[in-house]
Amino acid sequence: MFSSFIETARNSPFRTPFTSARCDAAAPAVDPQPVEGRQIAAAAAPVANQQDSCEFGSNKYFALCGIGGILSCGTTHTFVVPLDLVKCRLQVDPAKYKNLVHGFKVTVAEEGARGLAKGWFPTLLGYSAQGLCKFGLYELFKVKYADIIGEENAYLYRTSLYLAASASAEFFADIALAPFEAAKVKIQTVPGFANNFREAVPKMLKDEGINAFYKGLVPLWMRQIPYTMMKFACFERTVELLYKYVVPKPRADCSKGEQLVVTFAAGYIAGVFCAVVSHPADVVVSKLNQTKGASAVSVAKSLGFSGMWNGLTPRIIMIGTLTALQWFIYDGVKVAFGIPRPPPPEMPASLKAKQH
Predict the structure, then answer these.
(1) 129 neighbors 176 (Cβ within 8 angstroms)
(2) CA–CA–CA angle 226, 231, 236 (5° rounding)
(3) What is 94-121 written as a DSSP string?
(4) In 10 A of CB 63, how many CB atoms?
(5) Percent of the chain clearing pLDDT 90 (strictly above)
């Protein structure tokens, strides 16, 4: 796996200002052929000499995609815990934490640098579970829905296909995430409640029972489902547009490093839109998990419209970076594990025949 990442870095056109791009010129040019009935793909086209480790659409394929989701979501969300902690505190106590920089200063002054890492363990567990379901089930639903509507409709309505598959996947992913997200927010936003996950769980059970872990599920769906729909659909279409209008050569002719650069760029663009679309629900989730006995409706009323946009700037920075890194890692895992990466969507021959 790591040798594949090293090779990818070596081939990257951005490793020094004097490096020329290398696009596997030694390999014979072979036009990638789409798998019959499989026109929709999330990642880049396969290189001609790539040896796939499994069959596209097989159970092993979906399982490996789920592992890619664990690695991409669990690691990235844990990496930005300090930013997430300050973002949550800005949302629930804007009087004390006036802005992003001030929030960091107050947190470090009161709790030391270690205080910025509060909630890292439930974050790692929760978003690893979410990543498994989000990416693994997205690939599953995308294939199954494409089979149901047929090859021609899968191409013509591919954006709707991306939206439906991602929404379905996120529905189940949030059920896995909710308990860990609730504990994380309690640890980060309620002073003196708990210092870690092990302390938080029994206290939450004692105070509110099992409802403490799932009372934020509905607003979590409201936050995450639009976010994920935008994340996948915007990414898929942005990749298409970048290769069509920006990258000066076909995707199949690019090295793995060049493909991953495009993946990162498309991921960041998608992330900015994700943050804006899902932010009001994110504020409600933070405030709801902080306040004992509150409901989503009562929290929304108390915040008002302007209050539901607290902490938007740090969240745009956090989600943009997260989304870009997640797609980069996910695509990198596909390269490293030899997971099939079908070519970009192309008009089926049957549709071309109808146009003539």
Answers:
(1) yes
(2) 130
(3) TTT--SHHHHHHHHHHHH-GGGGGTTHH
(4) 13
(5) 47
Question: How far is the C-alpha of 14 from the C-alpha of 20, rounded, in Å?
Answer: 9
Q: Beta strands of the chain (E only): which ranges?
A: none
DSSP 54: S
- Contact, 172 vs 215, CB < 8 A? no
Number of H helices, E strands in the chain: 14, 0
- Whether 235 contacts 327, CB under 8 Å: yes
Give the DSSP letter of residue 252: G
* Lowest-confidence region among 73-82, 239-248, 337-346: 337-346
Comparing C-alpha atoms, which of 83, 126, 318, 325 is closest to residue 220? Answer: 126
pTM of the model: 0.75
Helix (H) or strand (E) holding 168: helix 158-189
- The encoded tokens of residue 186 equal 């309690």
The 10s digit of each residue's pLDDT in 170-214 is 999 999 999 999 999 899 988 889 989 999 999 999 998 999 999
Taking 70 as the threshold, does the pLDDT of residue 42 lie above it? Answer: no
Q: Specify the DSSP class assigned to residue 253.
A: G
The residue that leads in pLDDT, 149 or 298, is 149
Contact between 66 and 135 (Cβ < 8 Å): yes
Nearest alpha carbon to residue 80 among 323, 277, 322: 322
For residues 240 and 204, the answer to whether their CB atoms sit within 8 Å is no
Q: How far apart are CA 110 and CA 125, in angstroms?
A: 27
CA distance 185 to 342: 39
Of 196, 200, 201, 198, nearest in space to 114 by CA = 196
DSSP at 255: -
Q: List Cβ neighbours of 312 (8 Å cut-off, separation of 6 or more).
A: 275, 276, 279
Using CA atoms, how far apart are residues 203 and 212, in angstroms rounded to an integer?
A: 10
Cβ distance 346 to 49 under 8 Å?
no
